[in-house]
Amino acid sequence: MTYALSGALQGAVYDLLQNDPGLTALVGDAVYDAVPSGTLPETYVRLGSEKAVGASDRSGMGAEHRFTVTVITTAPGFAFAKSVAAAVCDALRDAAPVLSRGRVVDLYFHSASAERIDGGATRQIDLQFRALLADE
Protein backbone atom coordinates (compact mmCIF):
# COMPACT_ATOMS: atom_id res chain seq x y z
CA MET A 1 0.00 0.00 0.00
CA THR A 2 1.06 3.58 -0.51
CA TYR A 3 -0.33 7.00 0.28
CA ALA A 4 2.53 8.62 -1.60
CA LEU A 5 0.36 9.51 -4.61
CA SER A 6 -2.29 11.43 -2.68
CA GLY A 7 -0.79 14.87 -3.26
CA ALA A 8 -0.21 14.13 -6.94
CA LEU A 9 -3.85 13.04 -7.36
CA GLN A 10 -5.15 16.10 -5.55
CA GLY A 11 -3.07 18.44 -7.71
CA ALA A 12 -4.14 16.74 -10.93
CA VAL A 13 -7.85 16.79 -10.02
CA TYR A 14 -7.59 20.46 -9.04
CA ASP A 15 -5.92 21.30 -12.36
CA LEU A 16 -8.55 19.39 -14.34
CA LEU A 17 -11.41 21.19 -12.60
CA GLN A 18 -9.75 24.61 -12.65
CA ASN A 19 -9.13 24.36 -16.39
CA ASP A 20 -12.35 22.72 -17.56
CA PRO A 21 -14.28 25.09 -19.87
CA GLY A 22 -17.71 23.68 -18.93
CA LEU A 23 -17.11 24.12 -15.22
CA THR A 24 -15.42 27.51 -15.47
CA ALA A 25 -18.37 28.76 -17.54
CA LEU A 26 -20.52 28.12 -14.44
CA VAL A 27 -18.23 29.05 -11.53
CA GLY A 28 -15.33 30.97 -13.07
CA ASP A 29 -12.17 30.36 -11.08
CA ALA A 30 -14.09 29.45 -7.91
CA VAL A 31 -12.52 26.00 -7.56
CA TYR A 32 -10.73 25.73 -4.24
CA ASP A 33 -8.42 23.34 -2.51
CA ALA A 34 -8.58 25.57 0.57
CA VAL A 35 -11.53 27.95 0.79
CA PRO A 36 -10.20 31.50 1.01
CA SER A 37 -11.19 33.87 3.78
CA GLY A 38 -13.46 36.78 3.08
CA THR A 39 -16.53 36.97 0.90
CA LEU A 40 -17.11 33.86 -1.15
CA PRO A 41 -18.88 33.69 -4.50
CA GLU A 42 -22.49 32.53 -4.62
CA THR A 43 -21.36 29.18 -6.01
CA TYR A 44 -18.03 27.42 -5.67
CA VAL A 45 -16.41 23.99 -5.86
CA ARG A 46 -14.19 22.67 -3.08
CA LEU A 47 -11.93 19.66 -2.94
CA GLY A 48 -12.82 17.67 0.13
CA SER A 49 -12.07 14.60 2.14
CA GLU A 50 -10.24 11.52 0.96
CA LYS A 51 -9.84 7.93 2.08
CA ALA A 52 -7.27 5.53 0.71
CA VAL A 53 -6.85 1.77 0.97
CA GLY A 54 -4.04 -0.39 -0.28
CA ALA A 55 -4.21 -1.86 -3.75
CA SER A 56 -0.66 -3.13 -4.15
CA ASP A 57 0.05 -6.43 -5.81
CA ARG A 58 3.07 -8.31 -7.16
CA SER A 59 3.38 -5.86 -10.03
CA GLY A 60 3.87 -2.85 -7.74
CA MET A 61 2.61 -0.42 -5.16
CA GLY A 62 -0.79 1.19 -5.48
CA ALA A 63 -3.85 2.43 -3.66
CA GLU A 64 -7.53 3.08 -4.16
CA HIS A 65 -8.46 6.66 -3.27
CA ARG A 66 -12.04 7.75 -2.65
CA PHE A 67 -12.23 11.52 -2.70
CA THR A 68 -14.94 14.15 -2.46
CA VAL A 69 -15.58 17.19 -4.61
CA THR A 70 -18.21 19.49 -3.10
CA VAL A 71 -20.46 22.02 -4.81
CA ILE A 72 -21.74 24.78 -2.52
CA THR A 73 -24.21 27.47 -3.54
CA THR A 74 -26.61 29.98 -2.06
CA ALA A 75 -28.56 30.08 -5.34
CA PRO A 76 -32.19 29.15 -4.71
CA GLY A 77 -33.23 25.57 -5.37
CA PHE A 78 -31.00 22.70 -6.40
CA ALA A 79 -31.15 23.16 -10.18
CA PHE A 80 -28.03 25.30 -10.51
CA ALA A 81 -26.08 23.24 -7.96
CA LYS A 82 -26.91 20.11 -9.93
CA SER A 83 -25.75 21.68 -13.19
CA VAL A 84 -22.42 22.52 -11.53
CA ALA A 85 -22.20 18.98 -10.12
CA ALA A 86 -22.84 17.61 -13.62
CA ALA A 87 -20.00 19.80 -14.97
CA VAL A 88 -17.65 18.41 -12.29
CA CYS A 89 -18.62 14.86 -13.29
CA ASP A 90 -18.16 15.69 -16.97
CA ALA A 91 -14.72 17.17 -16.27
CA LEU A 92 -13.59 14.00 -14.50
CA ARG A 93 -15.39 11.48 -16.73
CA ASP A 94 -12.95 9.67 -18.98
CA ALA A 95 -10.23 11.93 -17.61
CA ALA A 96 -6.67 10.71 -17.59
CA PRO A 97 -5.12 13.05 -15.03
CA VAL A 98 -1.37 13.32 -15.38
CA LEU A 99 0.20 12.83 -11.98
CA SER A 100 3.54 14.21 -10.91
CA ARG A 101 4.21 10.72 -9.55
CA GLY A 102 2.58 7.44 -10.55
CA ARG A 103 -0.42 7.05 -12.81
CA VAL A 104 -4.19 6.80 -12.70
CA VAL A 105 -5.32 3.28 -13.60
CA ASP A 106 -9.03 4.07 -13.26
CA LEU A 107 -11.14 7.06 -12.21
CA TYR A 108 -14.90 7.05 -11.93
CA PHE A 109 -17.91 8.57 -10.16
CA HIS A 110 -19.00 6.59 -7.12
CA SER A 111 -21.91 8.40 -5.43
CA ALA A 112 -23.43 11.75 -4.48
CA SER A 113 -25.50 13.33 -1.76
CA ALA A 114 -27.37 16.63 -1.88
CA GLU A 115 -28.61 18.54 1.14
CA ARG A 116 -29.59 21.94 2.46
CA ILE A 117 -27.24 23.41 5.04
CA ASP A 118 -27.07 26.65 7.02
CA GLY A 119 -30.73 26.47 7.96
CA GLY A 120 -31.73 25.85 4.34
CA ALA A 121 -30.00 28.95 2.94
CA THR A 122 -27.23 26.96 1.21
CA ARG A 123 -27.22 23.87 -0.97
CA GLN A 124 -24.37 21.37 -0.84
CA ILE A 125 -23.71 18.45 -3.15
CA ASP A 126 -20.93 16.02 -2.20
CA LEU A 127 -19.65 14.03 -5.16
CA GLN A 128 -17.66 10.91 -4.34
CA PHE A 129 -15.11 9.61 -6.83
CA ARG A 130 -12.86 6.55 -6.85
CA ALA A 131 -9.37 6.56 -8.29
CA LEU A 132 -7.14 3.52 -8.56
CA LEU A 133 -3.51 4.62 -8.62
CA ALA A 134 -0.28 2.79 -9.42
CA ASP A 135 3.10 3.99 -8.18
CA GLU A 136 5.39 3.39 -11.13
UniProtKB/TrEMBL annotation:
A Pfam cross-reference name: Tail_completion_gp17
Top-level taxonomic group: Bacteria
Identification of the protein by name: DUF3168 domain-containing protein
Organism per entry: Sulfitobacter delicatus
